[in-house]
Amino acid sequence: MTAGPEGGALVGSRSETMVADTHLMAALLGERDELLRLVEDAFPDHRISVQGNRITVEGPQAERLARLFEELVLLLRAGRVLDPATVSRTIDMVAEDVRPSEVLNAEVVRAARGKPVRPNTAGQKRYTDAISSHIVTFGIGPAGTGKSYLAVALAVQALQSHQVNRIILTRPAVEAGERLGFLPGDLMAKVDPYLRPLYDALYDLLEPEGAQRLLDRGAIEVAPLAFMRGRTLNNSFIILDEAQNTTPEQMKMFLTRIGFGSKCVVTGDVTQIDVAGGRSGLVGLEEVLGFVDGIAFVHLTRRDVVRHKIVADIVHAYERAEHPGDGD
Questions:
Q1: Nearest 5°: CA angle at 92, between 42 and 47?
Q2: Burial class (CB in 10 A: 0-12, 13-18, 19+), 316
Q3: How far apart are CA 40 and CA 42, in angstroms?
Q4: Mind listing the pLDDT tens digit for each residue in 263-280?
Q5: 49 — phi, psi (to 5°)?
Q6: How far apart, in whole angstroms, are the C-alpha atoms of residue 100 and residue 305?
């Protein structure tokens, strides 16, 4: 198959990629060449020719495009299944001079039944690397970027490898349209809906029975942020989720709970602030703490959304509506 702009000669360089494993060609190009067409659409000013197991590229970024095909082959050799989402993420990473094979094959932890948990984007890899190498990591970005799930996965890995003695998961119980007093049950029953996403991640990683055993044993604690006041949390992996809904006072209270041998991850989305008065403890915090050793801030974007493609499109639509002059 050959692709390129209509008519005229292409300006740029020429590169060739030989795929030694001929049997990988069908998976590389996709059914009816759908994956090849994705690459063609991403590099419209290039001509791509496929003959047997030889891929020839002509155009201004021919070397980069050849590197893209090499990376896709490495993913196939590692047992990864290529689909449109994976190829799109690979294109984004190569455009940022990141090696997709290093990102997508990096394993964070083995979940229940041996399922590997891996970063799916360059941003997620930066995030997991930051958590591994810092005491406190702030993961800031829109819904669907895996902020909470990856943090819980790394917490489970730390607990299983005896780096910490317990996991503490907490969220602010902000009233989003409902009064807690109108909900049935005691305090924990009332705040349980706010903590449910953290339980969901635990159950997926450990399966319900395994997670429940650790909860019953106290090795995992899930509690509203108010329960953190007055405590010193030693030898713990602490995750504060939905941190955009903390007040500045709550954020300071939480961060000063961190004890010896502990690691902390704070996640949030500054575009979804529900806290009364809009006084979020997450907004502006990088200016205050960005210079402190042992603290990292990682910003995830719509490119890191790993839910259905429509989620990334929705995030992008909101971004354009809020900042109409910024372009794409």
A1: 30
A2: middle
A3: 5
A4: 999 999 998 888 877 889
A5: -120, 135
A6: 16
Distance CA 282, CA 321 (A): 23
Q: Are 147 and 127 in contact (CB under 8 A)?
A: yes
Query: What SS3 string covers the chain?
Result: CEECCCCCCCCCEEEEEECCCHHHHHHHHCHHHHHHHHHHHHCCCCEEEEECCEEEEEECCHHHHHHHHHHHHHHHHCCCCCCHHHHHHHHHHHHCCCCHHHHHCCCCEECHHHCEECCCCHHHHHHHHHHHHCCEEEEECCCCCCHHHHHHHHHHHHHHCCCCCEEEEEECCCCCCCCHHHCCCCHHHHHHHHHHHHHHHHHHHHHHHHHHHHHHHCCEEEEEHHHHCCCCECCEEEEECCHHHCCHHHHHHHHCCECCCCEEEEEECCCCCCCHHHCCCCCCHHHHHCCCCCEEEEECCHHHCCCCHHHHHHHHHHHHHHCCCCCC
| Per-residue pLDDT tens digits for 77-112 | 988 889 988 898 899 888 888 898 888 888 888 877
Given a contact cutoff of 8 angstroms between Cβ atoms, the answer to whether 274 and 242 are in contact is: no
pLDDT, position 234:
96
Tokens of 112: 């229940």
Cβ atoms of 226 and 252 within 8 Å: the answer is no
Position 57: which residue type? V
Report which of 6, 86, 16 is spatially closest to residue 52, judged by C-alpha positions: 16
Q: What is the CA radius of gyration of the chain?
A: 23
Asked if 239 and 233 count as a contact pair (C-beta separation under 8 A), the reply is: no
Residue 217 tokens read as 């044993």
Amino acid at 146: G
The pairing of beta strand 263-268 with beta strand 236-240: parallel
Q: Cα dist. 90→54, 106, 181 in Å?
A: 20, 14, 48
Q: Is the Cα dihedral 281, 286, 287, 291 positive or negative? A: positive
Its pTM surpasses 0.90:
no
* Distance linking the first and last C-alpha atoms of the chain: 31
- pLDDT recorded at residue 296: 97
